[in-house]
Amino acid sequence: MSQPLLTADFAREFPELAVRWQAETPPAPRLLVLNEPLANELGLDAQWLRGPEGIGLLTGTTIPDGASPVAQAYAGHQFGNYVPVLGDGRALLLGEVTDTQGRHRDLSLKGSGRTSFARGGDGLAVVGPMLREYLISEAMHALGIPTTRSLSVVATGREVQREAVLPGAVLARVAASHLRVGSFQLVAQQARATGDLGLLRRLADHAIARHHPDAAQAENPYIALFAAVAEAQASLVAQWMLVGFVHGVMNTDNTTISGETIDYGPCAFMEAYDPATVFSSIDHAGRYAYGNQPLVMQWNLARFAETLLPLFDDDEDKALSVAVEILEGFMPRYHGFWSAGMLAKFGLSKSMEAAGLIDQASALLSENAVDFTSFFCALSAAGRGDVGGVLAGNIFDDWLTRWRALGPDVDAMDRVNPLYIPRNHLVEQALTAAMRGDLVPVGKLLDVVSEPFRKRDGLQEYAAPAPPEFRGYRTFCGT
Ligand code: AMP
Ligand code: MG
Hints:
This protein has 18 helices and eleven strands. It is of the alpha+beta class. The longest helix is centred in the middle third of the chain and has 23 residues, at 221-243. The chain is globular, with a radius of gyration of 23 Å. The mean pLDDT is 97. Bound molecules: adenosine monophosphate (AMP) and magnesium ion.
């Protein structure tokens, strides 16, 4: 098998936003995990990827003909503060691959060494957080939620200084693209400084062609682009909320134009239902708490709208009113996706009674700190006459009577309510074992969360919440 075909479309079309760069050569690369189904989907030969040349590709040292690895430039609001230049400090876009369905996908690396955007960082990544991204992004994909994918994690054999000396790793990531709100913020900032809208228009045209091609037909394609991104993100955040996913670092540089979830740093799944749930050790104010995610996304989209205003209309007031109208539509759209999803989770069809019951259930869940994922599994069992698990006891008795009266469709519930999510304590156990060199628990957990809806014997521990001593789980940014 020869080298795969990679193109350098972004590098060629946007030299202003791409710095040619080379990965550092890892001293002793060792493949820890390879996503064979994804490799096949990309038309890459898994056997070749496992060999020395393939591992070279997965660490950035084998550069296929036609590829031109680059660090991408972008700006962004981090925790609400604008940073004019961020960029890939430890990541590289290797190039684009055309997958077996003809779609363009980015192939990129994380942890491949310092770039000119590294600022104080060392450009590296470690085994634990890269395996964590692999596990959680693949779990999200299996849940049917738009996300970047993980192709591989390669241990580099390099020692990396963090809170301790830890083993280094490189993650290979596949994305619809790496365009973010922050990419537009950087370009808009330059457009404001020079008065030249050329690059901004080109980037917007590129985003339309790649992600939202219908927008090209609109009277003003840029307004349609903004509306399409807002729609994709309203749907995405609703899907996060429906499975209890807390992204943890919803900065504008981590908000994609494609509508995929990106940047698995301090993310985690909520267990006991509580809108104030925060896992990230640096999110002191709870800006990115579970219940704030829709509002934060709207805020991020407002920053995106600001970048496109000059393309909406020459008249600033008109441009602004278009942006405001679409932004005001965000919450109703989000709510539409969320309530349709909630109805499905409860097995109900739309009615006033159903909406009331869902509100009451939310209140009961939070008052009693009920495990969000287990609740829906116990609920479908209760619908079949088997009241147990988190529904044992009597706090839900009245509520259950009213729920049953609406004739819930329990089979439909089982198709949307996952049994298996990456439970925080199991993720931690698996990563701890991996750091010791035992990859079996990671492989097992990956296997379980890759089929989240299918009940299998012997997997009860994967469906159960963390033991009480595990409460107060904290995550770190994976740097
Ligand atoms: P993130 O929080 O992962 O979205 O990263 C924010 C910014 O910090 C991006 O510009 C990253 O490229 C950069 N960054 C994060 N970790 C490192 C590191 N270890 N070395 C260099 N740059 C980093
Ligand atoms: Mg980021």
